[in-house]
Fold this protein.
Amino acid sequence: MTGVPLRSLPYWERPRERLARLGPGALSDAELLAILLRTGDGSAAASALDLARRLLAEGARRTGDPKRALRFLATASVQELSQLKGIGPAKAAQVKAGVELGRRVARDESLERTVVASPADVARYFLAELRDLEQEQLYALLVDGKGGIIACELISVGDLSGAPAHPREVFKAAVRQNAHAVILVHNHPSGDPTPSELDVAVTRRLAEAGRILGIEVLDHLVVGDNRYVSLRQYGIEF
């Protein structure tokens, strides 16, 4: 039905109505994306569904695999998406917002009722969460006395030199939520999780601040491309 506006489709065939009637699981990737896009490219030749299919085709081309077309939406920046025909800044922002909401839901579900027994328990979530990011992000997992995760706090975005991990920001939520300890996690966009000298220095500074507050820094994980390094397991003292 190329070129047919969504409002011209039979009511029961429109993506939004199909979602309400059948649930989101019944919709194709293109239909879900069309709901986010809302409208086509402004011409009479393309509906929102046509534009969604075009965007997924571009994702398949960029990744070299149709099954990874959605990964393109996760990795592309707003600026990159905005340059595609029919998208523009507003639609690019809508798509990225939808991707980020999905990422956060997945994060919250994976951390729910999690008990941290090893670095692998933490890495299992963060490998998927952080591997596609173009900037470093530093998180603090707040942990209770039994190793259960209380919350996950985003501390800074950028790199550890450009967005310093100030003890005040790291431990503010931990104090507020009466956390017993914290686990630090950040990514290396290069894909190489080898800790840098700055990573080690920042960790030691935060661990010292934590000792003053009575909140232990249990570990610091550096996440790369499907790999991670635990500073504790790496043999680094802090």
User: Anything to note?
Assistant: The longest strand covers residues 149-158. The beta strands are 136-143, 149-158, 181-187, 216-223, 228-230. The two ends are 62 Å apart (CA to CA).
